[in-house]
Write a structure and sequence with these properties.
The complex is a heterodimer of chains A (177) and B (200). Chain A has 177 residues and is mainly α. Chain A is built from five helices and two strands; from the N terminus they run αβαααβα. Chain A has a single domain, classed as Skp domain (Protein Binding, DinI Protein, Chain A). In chain A, 77% of the residues lie in helices and 5% in strands. In chain A, strands 1-2 form a two-stranded parallel sheet. Chain B has a single domain, classed as Immunoglobulins (Immunoglobulin-like), CATH 2.60.40.10. A five-stranded antiparallel β-sheet of chain B has the order 2-3-4-8-7. In chain B, strands 6-5-9-10 form a four-stranded antiparallel β-sheet. Chain B starts with a helix and ends with a strand. Classes of the chains: A mainly alpha (177), B alpha+beta (200).
Chain lengths: 177, 200
């Protein structure tokens, strides 16, 4: 029996240490600062840059259409004295229609830009949500709060802040490390 | 005494690495559908449900088997299907197909049909932890004309041992006009390496 006592005691000791750390982690109340994660996550910058390039291309089309319409308007104002009444009415109608079309196009583009922005932001949020979920599971946390500066966490001790650790892991994963 | 300790310590490791073998495809299906086993993953983002299922080789083999298959036929089919990885991706909103819920007009409907039928190669990606992309071999999108509860597709990738040495594979779906952003699933490579099988 004496032969077994030492190894059994060792196993029991190791198990008790594991159990101690497990229960300690799971009972801790921890949080991450969502705004800091969004700002510090490297993919946010990549996604935002791609969105801005796309948005620039879309709005550039509107700008060139507007410039064309303004040229037409200038020509019309310059030469209006040469036109007959009927021609004037026709030109005005044409300019009005063109302006309306440009307005509609501009609205559609603005909507598209907003939609692209929404998609880009959601992509980054998905990544953060997935990582925090996995981190919590892996480290045995029962709950991880998300502080966003809107008053949902009024006070928390510095040791409860997981933002930096999570951000480090999130960026490492994004960079394929 | 030493033997006892070694067995005591190694037994859990040996059992955890073993592959599960099932008698029937129904048993295998119920094992796969249990999310705790790691073969089915689900996500809900902005009202859209996404689910990804890894299909083990034997599930594809049994689909093609006749009533009394010969061992040669089974072997041939196993060889045929073992070379690839098969994933089933389902997407739905309010338990309806994407085409029934997402497009707002005829033009968007047409664009989405086109996207789902021919353009998913550019929207769905499988890549490793170190960002190596695994090239898509093929995908299949069967049109269900609103009769199904989800838009379901089968994606086929080559089974490359080089990529399966990494801890996880990432399966990502770009935004398909659902405003869900890019949705990503992580698949543990050991789940694929130790996939469950059938007694065939």
């Amino acid at each position: 029996m004496k032969k077994f006592s030492l190894p059994l005691a060792l196993i029991a000791f190791v198990l008790s240490i594991i159990a101690f750390f497990n229960t300690q982690n799971s009972s801790e109340l921890v949080y991450v600062d969502v705004n800091k994660l969004l700002d510090g996550y490297k993919r946010t910058k990549v996604v935002r840059a791609a969105f801005e390039t796309k948005a620039k291309t879309l709005t550039a089309n509107v700008d060139s259409l507007l410039a064309g319409w303004q040229t037409d308007l200038k020509i019309y104002e310059k030469e209006r004295s040469k036109y007959s009444k009927k021609e004037l009415a026709l030109k005005q109608e044409l300019l009005g229609n063109k302006q309306q079309q440009i307005n509609n196009y501009q609205q559609a583009i603005q909507k598209q830009v907003q939609e692209e922005d929404k998609k880009a932001t959601q992509t980054v949020i998905n990544d953060i949500n997935d990582f925090v979920k996995e981190y919590g599971k892996k480290n045995g946390y029962k709950i991880i709060f998300g502080a966003g500066g809107s008053g949902n966490i009024m006070y928390a001790d510095q040791t409860s802040d997981l933002t930096e650790i999570v951000l480090e892991g999130l960026n490492a994963e994004f960079e394929g490390k | 005494m030493k033997k006892f300790i070694v067995i005591f310590l190694l037994a859990p490791l040996l059992f955890s690495c073993s592959t599960k073998v099932f008698d029937t495809s129904e048993e295998l299906w119920s094992y796969l559908k249990d999310k705790d086993n790691g073969y089915l993953q689900e996500k809900n983002i902005n009202g859209y449900n996404f689910s990804l299922l890894y299909k083990p080789t034997d599930l594809l083999v049994i689909q093609e088997l006749e009533e009394h298959p010969t061992p040669e036929k089974i072997k041939a089919l196993k060889v045929k299907y073992k070379k690839q990885l098969y994933f089933t991706l389902s997407m739905s909103r309010n338990e309806k197909e994407l085409l029934s819920t997402t497009p707002k007009n005829r033009q968007e409907f047409g664009a989405m049909v086109n996207q789902l039928s021919f353009g998913m190669r550019n929207k769905v990606h499988l890549f490793t932890q170190s960002k190596d992309t695994i090239e898509l071999l093929d995908y299949n999108y069967p049109r269900m004309y609103g009769m199904s509860q989800a838009t379901t597709m089968l994606f086929v990738y080559p089974r490359d041992k080089k990529y399966l040495k990494e801890a996880t594979l990432n399966f990502s779906i770009e935004d398909l006009g659902t405003y869900t952003g890019e949705v990503k699933f992580k698949i543990a490579a050991d789940k694929i390496n130790n996939e469950p099988s059938l007694k065939l």
